[in-house]
Amino acid sequence: MWSWDGSRYVPADRTTDPGRWAELVYPGPDEPTITHITDGLATSSLSCQSIVVDMLDSLMVEPGHRVLELGTGAGWNAALLAARAGAGSVTSVEVDAQLAAMARGRLDSVDAGVTVEVGDGAHGRPEGAPYDRLIATYAVDEVPWSWVEQTRPGGRIVTPWGRLGHVALTVAADGRSASGWVQGLAMFMPSRGIGQGLPWHEVRSDNSLKAEGPFPRDLLPLRADLGLLFALRVMLPEVRITTETDWGVTAWLHDTSSWATLVTTADGNVVAYQGGPRRLADEIDQAWQKWQNADAPGLHDFGMTRTPDQQYIWSGDKDTGPRWPTAPQTARI
């Protein structure tokens, strides 16, 4: 197992440090367990128990359902699926051959009855289609159309989207679309091969301070309002937002070339510092206002639709409500 020491991931070996190892394997319900590191980055984990429960609940698996899982990891989620659907009902696909072999061994040792295959989850597993249920354990920005094609009409797809939340989509009767509501908000690892982007401090170091001025909003909603956070993700998909609170909230914003810091001062006002070609503080303020103008929809007021040609987020009603395409750089309210 692995944990972050403030500058890098450090290992905890079961043989030499069983106490620390056990702490990482059995954390609180809102803490993940990092199980695999690639080039210094976390690439596989046991997700928070609370998130695993929420996603499985959203999937609505029943005994006898044929289930496709994408992202086997350690095999824990696949074992839970098999306990519900039944032995022989679950196929799990893992891109990393070593992880797949280890998971297969664990699952076989407890007679879980899960078939583990090595492959790219983006392609699904057409050999076993159609499936009643499909679940991904890693985040995608665009739901692959192959997932919809391989799920039967009326079947259900649950996947993290945009590393920020997860959605549950139901395939339409004609099989030509899948739609459903946002289920929750949490951070997820992206699929393998998707860059995790530059950290804030690297973007900041390449750009000297270019602007300083007041920011016209209290920053607390950036930590507390899930609807606002999701809306900002939709409108500004390339901008990352990190917050911290002590006696006041501080927010850090960045993309690949621009940055901003929003600081709450002792008198309760907020000051914005920003640099780079974009004015991210100004863009966040404008997007925030657009969300308010749309009656400030909450997290569970948002949904997603995937068709063969496009993917979009909607609010309120999938047919008549406002909608926003999810392609990077084009999603704007």
Structure in words:
The protein folds into 3 domains: 2-46, no CATH class; 49-185, Vaccinia Virus protein VP39 (Rossmann fold, 3-Layer(aba) Sandwich), CATH 3.40.50; 197-333, no CATH class. It has helices at residues 18-25, 49-59, 76-85, 97-109, 145-149, 200-205, 221-224, 226-235, 280-293, and strands at 2-4, 9-11, 33-38, 41-46, 67-70, 90-94, 114-118, 131-136, 151-161, 165-171, 178-185, 211-215, 240-245, 249-254, 259-264, 270-275, 302-306, 311-315, 323-325. Strands 7-6-5-8-9-10-11-17-18-19 form a 10-stranded mixed β-sheet, sandwiched between helices. The chain has 333 residues and is α+β, with helices and mostly antiparallel strands. The protein starts with a strand and ends in an 8-residue tail after the last strand. Helix 8 packs across helix 9 (280-293). It has 9 helices and 19 strands. The longest helix is centred in the C-terminal third of the chain and has 14 residues, at 280-293. Keywords: Methyltransferase, Transferase. It comes from Streptomyces scopuliridis. This is Methyltransferase domain-containing protein.
